[in-house]
Amino acid sequence: MRLRLLSGAAVAFALAAWACGGSGSAPNPMTPTPTTTNPTPGVSAASTISIVGQLGSQSFSPNPADAPQGTTVAWKNTDSITHHIVMTDGSLDTGEIGPGQTSKVLTMIGNGGNYFCSIHPTMVGSIRSSNGAPPPCTGLYC
Questions:
Q1: Closest CA to 51 of 22, 27, 19, 86
Q2: What pLDDT was estimated at residue 67?
Q3: In what order do the strands lie in the sheet with 106-107?
Q4: Could you count the other beta carbons within 10 Å of the beta carbon of residue 83?
């Protein structure tokens, strides 16, 4: 009986350590499985923004980027984890971009704006409008 109790405690401890520890690479059961997006074949973006990591306003290069209204933009994930870029006004959404992948090519609808990673909201960036100045970043993701 005592051996069974000790074995059960050891298994419980091992499961707790596995669930709470590590580098965060284990998938969260509440998060959907990342889907890899690929660039549109034969179409290249006028501007490509590199995702370099979870570094706040230094997470993207260049930041701010140049992509005036009507031009195209794509994000290339040079980081080792999945990201999902969204404009704060909702005008662009890349979908999930796996490590080493490039988002689909998107056309800038608005006149510049701010964006963030919906998976890692501290990752923020901006795109300059046609007048050369990015809008001020306001709100939750600044």
A1: 86
A2: 85
A3: 60-61, 47-51, 72-77, 106-107
A4: 26
